[in-house]
Design brief:
The complex is a heterodimer. Chain A is an alpha/beta fold. Chain A folds into 2 domains: 46-269, 3-Layer(aba) Sandwich (Rossmann fold), CATH 3.40.50; 282-308 and 321-426 and 490-562, Rossmann fold (3-Layer(aba) Sandwich), CATH 3.40.50.300. Chain A is 31% helix and 20% strand. Chain A has 17 helices and 19 strands. Chain A has helices at 17-23, 37-42, 88-94, 121-127, 144-155, 159-173, 188-200, 218-235, 287-298, 301-307, 394-402, 435-443, 450-459, 475-487, 505-520, 532-538, 556-562, and strands at 46-56, 65-73, 77-81, 104-111, 114-115, 128-131, 206-210, 238-243, 255-260, 263-266, 354-361, 371-378, 383-387, 409-414, 419-422, 493-497, 524-528, 541-546, 549-555. In chain A, helix 5 (144-155) crosses helix 6 (159-173), helix 5 (144-155) runs parallel beside helix 7 (188-200) and helix 12 packs parallel to helix 14. The longest helix of chain A has 18 residues, at 218-235. Chain A is globular, with a radius of gyration of 26 Å. In chain B, strands 1-2 form a two-stranded antiparallel ribbon. In chain B, 33% of the residues are buried. The longest helix of chain B is centred in the middle third of the chain and has 32 residues, at 138-169. Chain B has helices at 16-31, 35-53, 55-79, 97-123, 126-134, 138-169, 178-206, 225-250, 267-274, 276-286; strands spanning 86-90, 93-96. Chain B is mostly helical. The two termini of chain B are 26 Å apart. Chain B has 10 helices and 2 strands. Chain B folds into 2 domains: 16-126 and 225-286, no CATH class; 136-206, no CATH class. The chains are: A alpha/beta, B mainly alpha. Chains A and B meet through helix 4, helix 5, helix 6, helix 7 and strand 15 of A and helix 6 and helix 7 of B.
Amino acid sequence: MRGENRGSVPPCGQVPPDRSGSTSGAGFASPHGQASPIAEHNATGETIHISGLSFTYPGAASPVLHGLDWTVPAGAFALVVGGTGSGKSTLLSLLKPEIAPAGVRTGDARVLGEPLGSLAPAASASGIGYVFQNPDNQLVCESVWHEMAFGLENLGVPQGEMRRLVAETSYFFGMEDWFRSRTDTLSGGRKQLLALASVLVMQPRLLLLDEPTAQLDPIAERTFLHALFRVNRELGCTVVVATHRPQAMVPYATCAFELKEGRIGPVADISALEERPALFEGDNVARGGGRQDAASACGAADVGASSVSGTVGAGIPSAPAASRPPAAVNPQRSEQASPFQAFANTRRRAQPAVRLARAWFRYGRDADWVLRNLDLTVAPGRIHALVGGNGSGKSTLLSLMAGARTLSKGSLSCAASARALLPQDPRAVFAEETVADELMEWARMAGCGQRSADAMADRMGLADLMALHPYDLSGGQQQLLALAKLTLTRPGLLLLDEPSKGLDLAARRTVARLLRELADAGTDIVLATHDLDFVSQVVDDVSMVFDGEIACTSPREEFFAGNVYYRP
Amino acid sequence: MNAPDRITAFATAHPAVPAAYLTVTLGLTMFSVQPVLIALSLAGALVYGSCLRGLASVLAALRWQLPLIALIALVNPLFSAAGLTEVFRIGPRAIYLESIWYGCAMGGLLVTSALWFQAAAELLPFDRVMALAGNAAPVVALMVSMVMRLIPRFMRQGRSILTVQGVVSRGRGSLVASTRSRLRASSVLMGWAMEDSLETADAMRARGWGVARRRTTYARHRFTGADALRLLALLAAAAAMVGLAWLASSQYRFFPTMSALVPWWGYVPYALWMLVPTALHVYERGRFA
């Protein structure tokens, strides 16, 4: 069964005999650079060939994909870029018959040389690998070894061959140390690596990946991409990655395509994708220099007062803050004013927003200390970022500040009593049937009316989606909705865990602008993030958490000026 | 399953071997209501327990086990007034020595069974049970594995939901009423889990779920000739034990008066059977010493 789909091209995962010796070693000599026989052979064929492909979802007025002509050569590492909702996921899943969405498809599409849908189920399952965005959802089994075997078990591969394939693939990815672990105990990066390995064990010739690194921190992202790179170059497997943040992938890619308004075209200059676009456009582009003096000069207090918008909710101060007369703003009006405006007194205070002194914390009697004698002061009305590796205690710090946990020893004081915590997964926030209801669930009780909610939806780009179920939104839109919902509770202290995770450029800009305005209006914001690009453009102060303590706290510019390794 | 296999009895054998031993032992313990046999089984379980978890933890567990035996011994005569040797009377009810003694035996039996179940958890960890079941019913084995994966995940997600709504309601009075808050959390979790399961189903289909008519298994335990020998030896011994237990139980009566207990050669093999895990444990540990 497994032989028939191999054709003339050796499948991935099958290491030629002359290299099998190094497979079992830890080093695994990398043969790229010298032309590998597989790559040479593959270069002659086309893995994906599409002409005139259109696709329309049932009930939709216009097609998502519009007469696509697209060819991916065998052995390529292809990027498909495009914003949220451009149809990247649709395109990818159409190429994998098992998960192809329902709808009307016209045009011609060939994958692995066969017309779509004519591949035998077993050949399709093993020949076309698919890696999803969420590492948690695509793992099926409880233990790593079972997860690795899952696909082969499904195909009914005999035990002997299965064990060989699993062993070989595990060595390739260096999984020996955690092969017997439970999947639930793995870090996000390892989970995604396992998802890749458990697909690769089936020896696919084409790997489709839909935003595979959107949920990963930068270090895990690099590890994952490096593994993917080796799969591509050493095993000759064709790789197609759909992403809206291609920066980290560009060095590995051999070609890139952009999907825009239902059409696909090649990206002429791949290296241009590596640029980090500014998050504050137009009049705010100079933010890097311009805002910084204002913020550091007056502790944001006056700036905050001056930019508060008097109009209800709709107040999106697009004009420079300085042009607004401060006198026109009456703090007392905050009751019916914009949700960005926190409680009036938060703007006049000099005491810190959050202060931790000699803080110790651990999760259980036998657990290790997560925080050890930690001191941290968060200045009021500023955006404060906590950066640091996985498990360094960033999320713990957030839940302590939120009041969801209490310190084992030491003291913690927060200026604001009304707080809100945005969790890593926005779905923890959703309880209603529509976006509109979702926005209003907590808003009314916090003094925000329908108009504020509508204005908020408008500025977050959710206005056209009000009737949808929150789960029908894309991941980025869900993140925006969750943030909007929490902002409408008008927290004095807003705590955000990875707010920029999985967002495309437009959404990143929206979040950046919202946070800036909230902070200017006097809301204290603390965010934990791995996204150093976001940190370098949006926040005011940065603290690096390391070994249960704060290694340093400094204004953003100073932080990045002093860092040698830790930079975007 | 996270930790490597513990070095103990049957660690290197096919899981069928400890499964057979435990089934026979539990059967013997539960069906032979004879004081000496119960005592021997209890002793075997206690000794093996102290090998595994240390004497201190076994003694600590006795703190609830002994009172439990005493309680059953005292309560039993109140419900079943049988026997001839009257000890005392509570009002109109006579309390007979035989009833107390029978209660003691039943309490001992209960505690012994519990101890053997505890040993079973060590001898047959989850993945070994799976390997045992996996060959016969691969789909059931997979289902159990999936459920085991979901439990910690639901716990984590539930905590996250409760934290978020707890933080929002704090400092604002009862934004979400506490009775409603749990209800809300469970409905959120339900929606979340359903949504996740759609993607999991896609991931399963993408990896060929349902393609082959019969799934195969990546069984990590091979049944070797040595395992067959061990199993045969175990089953032969088990047959002898069942005979001995039947003989001993049929010769013993609690009611109307208790039969006299006499020394009997048959107790020796029975005691040896109960000490098999201990002996193997000592042997496995000692091999590297």
